[in-house]
Amino acid sequence: MGRCRQRRESRLTRVVFWGLVLLTASFVGGRARAWDAATTHAGMTGRALEASRFHAALAHRMGRALGSFEPLRLDVAALDANRARDLVGRLRALDSAGGYRPSAEGVATASAWVRAGSVLAKTPPERGRNHFLEPSTKSGLDDDSGLSGAFHAARLTLDDGATVRAAATGQAFALDGMSALAWLRSPHNDFGLAAFFDNWERALSAETSSRRETALVRALLAMGGLLAVLEDAGQPAFVRNDFRGEFLARESGSAFERWVADRYGAVALPPAGPAVVRPDVESYFLAGDLLGLAQKTQRKFFSPGTLPADFSCDPCDASAARLVHRSLAFPEPEVGGLDLRQSPQTRYVVQDGLRILAYRRLGDRVHFFLDSSVYADVAQAWLPEVEGYAAGLVNHLLRAKVGFAVAGREAALTLEGVDEPLQVASGFRVFVEDAQGERKPIATAAFKPGTPILVKIPANARKIAAFVRGKDKAGEFVATGEIAGP
């Protein structure tokens, strides 16, 4: 009869090890980065924009003729002093070689602003603490079973200059965070859903062209932040509550993150797959049909801290397979078909044609790990799907529009791209723009489903613009549209 014994690290060993690490201040990898912000996030976001209707939406609904390539300026004078200081400081810290840092005059293309937002969503890196989402519990980062939050906060006082007061009051990163879904809607998230919709509205309705342009920049930064949260749902550690195994297990941080960044950089990522259509924002992450990105990622892939436990067996019989499955943190992916013959050769668990887990048996020990072959297969197959989800979210956010039909000095306005039941609070808000680029409201028309709204066009109108804000069965929307005057 075969005897199998599972190898587990003792609690005492862990305490001693982490204590030595803290005392020598040699921890350098403990940051919630997931995909590298400056390369992988920026690259995936760029691919998603290319696969979405982003370019057309800017050109046809916001009057930005060059669409993705439209140069836009952030006017810091249009922001309150504290917000301007914070945002400008973070923008200046961006890598000028990345192609998304604005010029000294605060100018960048529309697509560059979105990519910048995806990078700033993880700047400083501790913001990534709120990008975790465990689908079955809908919870965020929770390290109760491992290193204590107070312990890690104390480490930050040594590594990053955080004060003891900041650690004591929770301002230092303490290895926990709100779920990604809660972060999307949090009032503390300056790149969340509220920031996107509020600024998208102001990008059409603000009185001066400078304020409209600045609002559009802020909306695009928020869009990038939203995409960064979704893209992290395509990284296994972020949906398997595995901050420790992915980021704290080695001084250099995530091996997977480094491999993807080194292999693809920001411009060589695989093209996005088809834009994914989902019924609402939350369902891009998780839903009852189990097709949310977080759910699919968790089912398909391992992360370093959720691998099967190493074990010893001599001889290795059927009980070994049962022991492997009992050690799994999550029921999927399954580990089957193991070849447990003695060999120094690395073998792989293969699912759907992808190597998802490496293992090797030497002597009586069976060791599971992830290597560059696993990273290569996962990245090649999964990055396009993650980008397709991100492209779909862009389309979802921009799904609604105001249609115009002009006859003489009268315009018929319709709401398009939304589904009933509808909740529209204030109806159509209509604005006229003069030759100096200033806009003023000329009408607020009650909304009637299926019925065009007729608006008289003033003689001095250079442009007519309108928006409708509300909710449909797919969630919140801000529909916009503008046309040149007759």
Could you characterize the architecture of this molecule?
The structure is a single chain. By secondary structure, the chain is of the alpha+beta class. The chain folds into 3 domains: 194 residues, no CATH class; 62 residues, no CATH class; 85 residues, Immunoglobulin-like. Helix content is 37%, strand content 18%. It is built from 16 helices and 15 strands. The strands form 4 sheets. It has a 5-stranded antiparallel β-sheet, sandwiched between helices. Strands 10, 11, 12, 14 and 15 form a 5-stranded antiparallel β-sheet that branches. Strands 8-9-13 form a 3-stranded antiparallel β-sheet, with no helix packed on it. A hairpin with a 2-residue loop joins strand 6 and strand 7. Helix 10 packs antiparallel against helix 16. The longest helix has 26 residues. The protein is elongated, with a radius of gyration of 26 Å. The N terminus is likely disordered.
